[in-house]
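User: I'm putting together a teaching handout on how multi-component assemblies are represented. Below are the sequence lines for each component of a complex, exactly as they appear in our records. Could you produce the 3D structure of the whole assembly as structure tokens, so the students can see both representations side by side? Please keep the chain order the same as the input.
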Amino acid sequence: MSFFNVNNNCNGCLSCVQNCPANALSYRDEENKRTLLHNMSLCARCGNCWRICPQKAVQFEGILNGSWDTVTTMELVHCMVCGEPLYTDTFKHALSGKVDYEVATLCPLHKKTFSLDAWKHLASDQVEEGGNQR
Amino acid sequence: MKMNILSTNPRKCDGCGDCESACAEKHSGIKDKSRARIHVVGGNGHGRLFVPFTCRQCDDPPCMSVCQNSAIYKDEVLHRVVIDPNKCVGCKMCFSACPFGAIGFDATRGYAFKCDLCEGDPECVRACGKEAITYIDGHELKTARLNESASKHYAILRNMI
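Assistant: Of course. Below is the structure of the complete assembly, with chains in the same order as your input.
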């Protein structure tokens, strides 16, 4: 996707190239063709090209109002009790590989309530309301 | 060798949450319980059973084995597992690996945090008015009873999964 665009008013005068403080604009003259080049990694988004262009040919809006690009999409793993999104399947695989057992897909709260359920068996007198404890 | 551990007793805990507030205030300056390193779970459908959960300072900590940046190490002097916040990059591996949900995550600063035993003087112990949390020499514990309890606990957990 190109962020830096020029419209048909561009006449290849190269004033944008001359005035770019980040050297993000360049050009190539080959035989009977002049090509304008832009490098997004160098671009500081200062807007100088857009301000300086005598032909009002630089379309800078795309750089300022760029949309989100999808980088990658993975399978999501949820807490098996409440369904809260936890991490990706790849993350879980890495995690289980490092501890050498299958990590239970539980959120921090349900990891605790899981242990709490075990405690309920051990302290069953306390679970019943009105028990004789204390 | 003296080796103190944080011991919690759910039979004495009444779920007041004083330990959580004290912990959060000591470590972050505010009584925000989400910033605490100890959490009391229970009540609501669990009757009067409340269990304070915090880091068990495992002998072979899963959090330490999964850390991608070697930011977690064992402090043999206080027998605790420590996260170096300067090395932590916030990948949440430890947070997800801890079987007890004892690791917290500071989304603002972007790093994981856990119980550090307050450098050997735990604030939660002082805050608990019911003596449900004690900081005692592990060698004084009745290990036979502990083992029995742990194996029961484990058997129950195995049946639940």
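A couple of points students might notice: The beta strands of chain A are 5-6, 25-30, 33-38, 58-59, 76-78, 85-88. The first strand of chain A starts at residue 5 and ends at 6.
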